[in-house]
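Sorry to interrupt, but I need a hand with the structure work. It will help me judge whether the discrete encoding reads sensibly. Write everything out right here, beneath this request:
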Amino acid sequence: MKYPELRATDVLANERTYLAYVRTALAFVAFGFVIARFSLFAREISTVAHIHVARAGSSGIFGTVMALLGIGVGIVGAIRYARAERALREGRVSSLAPKMAYVGAALIAAVGAFVAADLLSVR
């Protein structure tokens, strides 16, 4: 079976998309680390300034969740890259399933809701 010729633009576009997934995954992990460390920073500042911090535990949990989401984004990116590469070699187009788009939107909404709830509870 003879495969259709691959165009360099298609292969390179797939690689750029994969690198975007990697960049996003690293941003999630780094952001999660910063958020988790913020609780430590808040405790230290409260000790030095002799003030009481109401809740610092949620930032540690949220930071861990963000880091885990980053790992998930990296895995999804690798799977998407491999599927798109296989489809290109077979002369097909591989698109994102609508269900995956809905899952991604739901995760973003959940993160936003958690942040909003946490910010409102501080008042």
In short: Helices lie at 8-49, 57-89, 98-122. The mean pLDDT is 84. The chain has one domain: 8-96.
